[in-house]
Give the backbone structure.
Amino acid sequence: MLLNTYSRFDVKFIKGKNATLIDEEGKDYIDFTSGIGVVSVGHGNERLANAICEQAKNIIHISNLYRIPPQEELAKILVDKYKENGGVFFCNSGAEANETALKIARKYGEVEGEIKRYKVITLENSFHGRTISTLKATGQPKFHQYFGPFPDGFDYAKNIKDIYNKLDDKTIAVMIELIQGEGGVNPFDKDEIKELESELKKRDILLIVDEVQTGIYRTGEFYASNLYEITPDIITLAKGLGGGVPIGAVVTRLTDVLKPGEHGSTFGGNYLSTRAGIEVCTILEEEKTKGNLDKRIEYFDDKLVEIAKEFPNLFDSVSGYGLMRALKTHKSQIRDEIIKRAFEERVLVLKAGSNSVRFLPPLTITSSEIDEGFDRLKSALAKVEE
Ligand SMILES: *Cc1c(COP(=O)(O)O)cnc(C)c1O
């Protein structure tokens, strides 16, 4: 028996190959969700499977009392893309990565044991996780029900410009997504973000960028921060990094803030998850270098724009970058109906925000899977009643 925390589709998948899933009756589905942006190199990826398998036959876990070679290797990959000297802390999920970022910020704001600055500004419509403090960091009132009392020290800005109104002498950090994912796939303006980065730097307020969803090539670049040409003080990662093996990471230039014993994780950065992370990053780096990833992104974009034009009765606009995309519908009932109909036509899509149909396909999706998925989506859309 399971706790009733999810409303699930009544389907059991028993086989997966790249962006295609097979249920127990043998019916195939096109997966435009990759398990909410997790299965970045597709289902049943042989290289990833072999890497994990080899690692599992040797050492899965040792503990962070000893050096872990794949952890050091993955840290180097993450720091190389960061464009600053930095360090990495590994954990197991996005919420934990954000918790770690908040702890680094709070400690940075403390001077000789005295709390000087502790406030963290986040944005309305954001999503930062399900622990008590990351729920509080999430700028959506519906997440602030039931579980209080919540920790103090969070405030919410309406948009990037409004952040300046919220900064005060107690503010230690601003935490944002560059493209809000759960909030509806809403990218922020690049110039506004670059200006925010330099303003915060002037005031010695940390910029934490939650890249749990946008990180590891989801937007076409390794970090969305690369796309926005910024170098945040702290970047948090999780979803796509392990290709489905649970892993979270914090990348930061603040390498001296946390001292031994002040933070830790039993499972964080173990041999298995970091070996998976290395393989995922290596596969995707190759896809990027060969131009395959950019081609897929373009192809997907063409299809998305086409379908939005074909169904102006349902859609307002197309949003997002890379393979983190959405179709914005006129209203939430339409959106919910589309997701249901799409499932009936055997193409999996996600919801986001109040009215977005979200697409997070594997970054390795083939053009024939894209074709098939959009054909099915069209059949589904033709059946949607306005
Ligand atoms: C999914 C997500 C999280 C939470 O990650 P978990 O691994 O579920 O804890 C945090 N931030 C963003 C932007 C996310 O998309």
Observations:
- Residues 48-288 form a domain with the Aspartate Aminotransferase; domain 2 fold (CATH 3.40.640.10).
